[in-house]
Amino acid sequence: MKFPGVFPVFRRGVHRGDSGSVQCGSRHCPLGRFNMASGTVKWFNAEKGFGFIEQDGGGADVFAHYSNIATSGFRELQEGQKVTFDVTQGQKGPQAENIVPA
């Protein structure tokens, strides 16, 4: 199935459209505010379903929610685990989407 104006990017779940935005996960992120990154899980509470990722190269820690982990089955991250992810602006600061364990 083809969608006019939608072009695949080299990462699953991310598409660029004619509207000047990038679809990352279930949201649209304006171009220029979308950054692919890598980092290390600082901590993750599996019972509560969230934690934080420390970005490689510095910068603010990034909020990680279990619903944004791109794996099947039980979604959790381990402290010290390497991950790649897309950085978006959440309600309270930077958040990770399309989190992929390295």
UniProtKB/TrEMBL annotation:
- Name all CSD domain ranges: 36-101
Provide this UniProt record's keywords sorted from A to Z. Answer: Cytoplasm
Transmembrane stretches, by residue range? Answer: none
Q: Does the keyword Cell membrane apply?
A: no
Do you know which CDD domains this protein is assigned to?
CSP_CDS (cd04458)
Q: Where in the cell is it found?
A: Cytoplasm
Q: At the top level of its lineage, which domain of life is listed?
A: Bacteria
Which Pfam families does the UniProt record give? CSD
Q: Which residues form the signal peptide?
A: none
| Entry annotated with the keyword Cytoplasm | yes
Q: Could you tell me what this protein is called?
A: CspA family cold shock protein
